[in-house]
Amino acid sequence: MTAYIDTSVVLRALLIQPGPRPNLQRWSRLCTSALLGVEARRTFDRMRLLGMLTDAQRAAAAAALETALEALDVAPVTAAVLECAGQPFPTVIGTLDAIHLATAVLLDREEPIGTFLTHDRQLALAAQSAGFAVEGV
After folding, report:
1. pTM score, two decimals?
2. pLDDT tens digits for 79-130?
3. Confidence band for 18, pLDDT divided at 50, 70 and 90
4. In whole angstroms, what is the distance from residue 54 CA to residue 24 CA?
5. E strands within 1-137?
6. How is the beta sheet containing 115-117 ordered, strand by strand?
7. Which one, of 97, 107, 106, lies nearest residue 127 by Cα?
8. Contact present, 4 and 117 (Cβ < 8 Å)
9. Is 99 helix (H, G, I), strand (E, B) or coil?
10. Rounded to whole angstroms, how far apart are CA atoms 64 and 95?
11. Distances (CA, A) of 9 to 31, 49, 55, 58, 90
């Protein structure tokens, strides 16, 4: 079974943030957007600049991210993804979340995605409205 995983789930695990984490072993395939790497790296840098991470912690988080990305099926942000993300969705959704959701929608057309994993309530609602089962909120 395949699941789509967004940045919030990966960040919670890598930064050891409080809250429940889905058991990722349940899925035979975890896919995501290449956007995840950008969002995570920007988060690490922002946290470092705000004094929330030391340089060493930022480096460790970045290394852990690379390991995580190797375990995921990472889809590129293509023109088709951007076109889909620019179309209306049934609920309010920001640009980066729309790119995640559009990626999942397009991947779902190739191989059904059983679950959309996110800790973001707004993205969860949009994913549910697009027909995905959602876990993590």
Report:
1. 0.93
2. 999 999 999 998 999 999 999 999 999 999 999 998 999 999 999 999 999 9
3. confident
4. 28
5. 2-5, 29-33, 73-75, 115-117, 133-135
6. 73-75, 29-33, 2-5, 115-117, 133-135
7. 97
8. yes
9. helix
10. 26
11. 12, 22, 23, 18, 23
In this predicted structure, what is the pLDDT of residue 30?
96
Nearest to 75 by CA among 96, 104, 95, 97: 104
The answer to whether the CB of 128 falls within 8 A of the CB of 134 is yes
Question: Which 3 state secondary structure label does DSSP give 32?
Answer: strand
Cα separation, 13 vs 36, whole angstroms: 13
Structure tokens given for 131? 């027909």
Query: Amino acid identity of 82?
Result: L
Instruction: Say how many C-beta atoms besides its own lie within 10 A of residue 63's C-beta.
Output: 11
Q: Between vectors from CA 86 to CA 84 and to CA 92, what angle results, nearest 5°?
A: 110
Q: Which of 86, 92, 102 is nearest to 35 (CA)?
A: 102
Amino acid at 16: I
Q: Hunting for tokens 């970045």 — which residue is that?
A: 62
